[in-house]
Amino acid sequence: MSWRTITYFGDSMLLIPTAILIALILPWKSNDRRTVWCWLLAFGLAGLVVSVSKILFMGFGIGSARFNFTGFSGHSAMSATFWPVMLWLLSGRLPAFWRGAAVTIGYMVPLLVGASRLVLHAHSKSEVASGLLLGFILSTLFLISQRNTQLKGFSLPQVSAALVLPLIIIGHGRIATTQNFLEHFSADIAGLERPWTRTDLLKQLQPGAQAFE
Question: How far apart are CA 136 and CA 36, in angstroms?
């Protein structure tokens, strides 16, 4: 499995449709009507915070040259919000040990996604670390809020049906265009000819100073 394949597990093209699928499934699988709203809040907040951080930088140059920070890593934040909850849902009726193992895997997948963003030079360490922290906080708060929730199990046909959409998306391999949209949107609202870039940010460093990767 290549790093580009791993990084796709944090791509919005995969996560947003699947997150909506989770929202559609939760009312049928949870005994608490608030579960679906808690999920939409957690996932939506992750996307909002990431988007705002990127707009602040690309539109107004608000970032940190010292820490090489241009906004939260969206792949890291969204995957850290998504995968622990996805594995929690799918393992809802398993014995405690196996459910814990599944949720643990849900926390490990975003770490691999974050590592892939570094290997592919898509983000700095500060952007990946902050993105993972944001996502893990949101997914953990969601799971804590659902600690007394009873989930119905999935039959094999139900699991297969639930995985059809993600597998189709992964097989297609199309990458989300959210970054391009945010670049144009940020430049438009700030009245710029082009959005701020990492190169522009690092020019602010004093001679002899070095940015953290």
Answer: 18
